[in-house]
Write a structure and sequence with these properties.
Elements (H helix, E strand, L loop, with lengths): L9 E3 H6 L3 E7 L4 H6 L9 E10 L5 E14 L6 E15 L2 H5 L6 E4 L4 E3 H12 L9 H12 L7 H4 L3 H8 L2
Length: 178
Amino acid sequence: MNTPGTLAHHVDFRRLATQQREIDGELYLSQLPRMIAEMAAGADASGAVRVHLRFSEDGQRRVNVAGSIETTLTLTCQRCLEAFDKHMSVAVAGVVVGDDDAAANVPRADEPILAEGDTLDLHTMVSDELLLALPPVARCGRPDCVSNYEHVAGTPEPAIDDKHNNPFAVLGQLKRGD
């Protein structure tokens, strides 16, 4: 296995596709600033991100990228606000495009991957894929966290006194002519 930091930053995606090449490499989470922003405060950013990508061309000479990205992120649970480790295994399947117009023409089954000129920024692509795979609400799943949440969620809400707390009561009085 490669050591972290060995994944190239920019690659010539067209050449890789015509040669049907694969890329295996690793990088540090610290090389992905947008991922650090999503991680728990004080989380260790020295973890490795393992990347395996295959480049190929289809019949229309579009560059296809397929592969996987794996890492473990330290996130903050939105229930108990404690840090927890979340293993991420993301499947990559997309078509490299040069602009938004070309992205609009990518088949629905594929995801557009934006490149700048003749090079693809692999670090940006890895960040994008990981960000898209993050859960909308991070939850740790620890038994004590889940039971505390269920206890709080299971308590009935206090009754609302409609006569005193209704913001539309004044409108009702005006309508009746009180």
